[in-house]
Design goal:
Layout (H helix, E strand, L loop, with lengths): L1 E6 L3 H12 L7 E6 L6 H7 L5 E5 L8 H10 L4 E4 L5 E2 L3 H12 L3 E9 L6 E2 L8 E4 H7 L11 H13 L2 E10 L8 H4 L3 H12 L3 H15 L18 H10 L3
Helix pairs in contact: 1-8
């Protein structure tokens, strides 16, 4: 099993995603951390774990989205399956075990678990579409589908990849909450300010809070009853939507443009 963590100059959050990749109960993994031409201390953060399962690779040029690092990882991965983890997202320790059990039982090539999307200050919590951090696929399927540059497609590269993989192989939904996503585009200038307190809090809670998942499911249900909308609004999009438009809006919100 290969876990791929694409990253760009946000080492404080990267520390926590790596931690949750390494604490998996399904332990037969390698973790590929692929930098999108990182210029910060991300490599040192990877090295600080001192874990032989970790591998670091840094692209010589910045691609502007996760498509570049993820595409490179398809060539580097040694595992029969590949799972993705956003550098600012967090997994439960049982995430990979649930996915591998699901694909083994159903013979699936592509599967995902459930994800809780968390807005700033926890004001929004909900289930939206499954993000790439919840997905696992057979390595060969990923190589056949391939990642495409965001400037050449209308969808974001993650959903473009998922859509084409699903068309080829179908998708198994494993109905277990295992992923906690803190969307960077919902947090203005996140790549400038580079906070990691939310990830740190969830890692601490997962490790030490008795009944964490039940408390979280209750909080999620309460938030859904309040019907708070996701904190993202780019205004009226152009029609037709030009290639790269959505990712460009995300980059602006994050402070990358």
């Amino acid at each position: 099993m290969s876990v791929v963590i694409p990253t760009y100059n946000w080492s404080a959050a990267l520390h926590y995603s790596i931690r949750t990749a390494l604490w998996q109960t399904y332990s037969n993994v390698e973790v590929l951390v692929v930098g999108d031409c990182c210029t910060d201390d991300s490599e040192q953060v990877v090295s600080s774990f001192g874990d032989p399962r970790l591998r670091w690779h840094n692209l010589p040029e910045n691609s502007g989205s996760q498509a570049g690092p993820n595409s490179a990882a398809l060539d580097l991965a040694r595992g029969d399956f590949i799972a993705y983890l956003g550098h600012d997202d967090v997994w439960l320790p049982t995430h990979l075990a649930w996915l591998m059990e699901g694909v083994a039982q159903k013979g699936s090539q592509l599967a995902h678990t459930l994800t809780e999307w968390i807005g700033p200050h926890g004001k929004y919590r909900g289930y939206l579409v499954a993000p790439i951090s919840s997905y696992l696929h057979e390595s060969q399927l990923g190589r056949e589908v391939g990642w495409r540059d965001y400037r050449e497609i209308v969808l974001g590269p993650d959903y473009d990849f998922i859509q084409r993989a699903d068309e080829r192989a179908g998708t198994l939904a494993v109905p277990v909450l295992t992923v906690f996503k803190f969307p960077s585009a919902w947090r203005k200038n996140s790549y400038v300010e580079k906070p990691s307190h939310e990830q740190a809090a969830y890692v601490r809670r997962i490790e030490s809070e008795r009944g964490f998942i039940y408390r979280e499911l209750m909080a999620l249900r309460i938030a859904q009853l309040k019907r708070v909308k996701p904190p993202l609004d780019f205004g009226e999009p152009p029609d037709p939507l030009p290639p790269g438009w959505t990712v460009t809006q995300y980059r602006k919100a994050r402070g990358l443009e």
